[in-house]
Specification:
Helix content: over 70%
Radius of gyration: 13 Å
Largest sheet: none
Strand content: under 5%
Oligomer: single chain
């Protein structure tokens, strides 16, 4: 997939998220990651799609992969903290916030 096609797929996923079509958005972001395994934006959006589908473990994995690529990506920390709050995991919440 060419760079422009990757951007288009990412944009499509974002539009699907806006329309609350989280499963289809998740599939778009997974396609982007398959082609560009270092795409931070795709990982964060994948995590958010999974969180909206209540697939919290998958969401956490996506955010963790974001941080492996760039450990200063604040949105990933914030999103992980939000999931830990939802799951009532106080110790982990304090670490990432």
């Amino acid at each position: 997939m060419e760079n422009e096609a990757i951007k288009d797929m990412l944009s499509q996923g974002i539009m699907l998220m806006t329309a609350s079509n989280y499963q289809s958005a998740k599939e778009c972001f997974e396609s982007v990651i398959k082609e560009d395994s270092h795409n931070l934006e795709a990982y964060v959006h994948l995590g958010n799609a999974c969180a909206n589908l209540e697939k919290y473990e998958e969401a956490l994995e996506a955010f963790k992969k974001t941080l492996i690529i760039d450990n200063s990506f604040a949105e990933a920390y914030f999103s992980m903290g939000s999931i830990y709050v939802l799951k009532n995991i106080v110790k982990q919440t304090a670490i990432v916030y």
